[in-house]
């Protein structure tokens, strides 16, 4: 049974999206500017993972969208 | 104008060596692992908790992969090993701690439930064979919820 997302959970989800965004960009720099093939490979794989994580997090917000109350609850 | 052209000519490697760059990613992965663990423990919605748990596991795996790659490139020096006498001393001290904890449980009449911890230490661990702790499945699910 899905519950409405709490304010705290919402903060964690949006902070996590920012974290994944930052990590994805950092990995892209390693792939673009790095010299070690092994590192570039690991970071290349990570880019897709971070992208997937961002979608997962966004999707969870969308799933909770309809459950969110429009009036403040006590 | 001239200044701008000069700036563009500097490669990323010059701005930050690859080792430092990789270390920055590793440090951020470690931070995100902690954040996901906190988020999972503070989630009240089961779906949200499960999502954070999955993200935690994925991020842990990525951190491990990057660490291994960095270690193979000699970009990461592991801490020196703990000395044998220090390990011996800690084992001795903490065997007593575990023994006292078990005595405490015995006094409370709760020894039955906790006995698998002691058995694991004294028998299974030493003999190198792992036996599943015998707790009812309904109880187990509480621990791993």
From TrEMBL, chain A:
Superkingdom assignment: Bacteria
Protein name as annotated: Spore coat protein
Organism: Paenibacillus plantiphilus
UniProtKB/TrEMBL annotation, chain B:
Name this protein carries in UniProt: Spore coat protein
UniProt-listed Gene3D superfamilies: 1.20.1260.10
Residue ranges the record marks as coiled coil: 84-111
Pfam families given in the database record: Coat_F
InterPro entries with a match to the protein in the record: Ferritin-like, Spore_coat_CotF-like
Highest taxon, organism lineage: Bacteria
Keyword field: Coiled coil
């Amino acid at each position: 049974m899905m519950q409405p997302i709490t304010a705290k959970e919402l903060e964690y989800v949006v902070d996590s999206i920012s974290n994944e965004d930052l990590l994805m960009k950092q990995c892209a720099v390693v792939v673009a500017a790095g010299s070690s093939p092994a590192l570039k490979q690991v970071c290349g794989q990570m880019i897709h993972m971070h992208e997937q994580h961002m979608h997962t997090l966004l999707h969870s917000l969308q799933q909770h969208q309809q459950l969110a109350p429009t009036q403040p609850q006590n | 104008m001239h200044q701008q052209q000069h700036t563009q000519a500097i490669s990323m490697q010059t701005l930050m060596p690859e080792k430092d760059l990789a270390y920055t990613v590793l440090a951020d992965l470690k931070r995100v692992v902690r954040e996901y663990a906190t988020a999972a423990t503070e989630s009240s919605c089961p779906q949200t908790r499960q999502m954070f748990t999955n993200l935690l596991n994925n991020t842990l795996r990525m951190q491990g992969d990057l660490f291994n790659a960095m270690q193979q490139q000699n970009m990461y020096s592991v801490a020196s090993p703990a000395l044998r006498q220090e390990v011996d001393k800690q084992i001795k001290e903490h065997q007593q701690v575990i023994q006292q904890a078990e005595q405490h449980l015995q006094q409370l009449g709760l020894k039955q439930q906790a006995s698998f911890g002691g058995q694991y230490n004294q028998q299974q661990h030493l003999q190198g064979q792992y036996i599943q702790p015998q707790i009812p499945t309904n109880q187990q699910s509480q621990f791993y919820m």
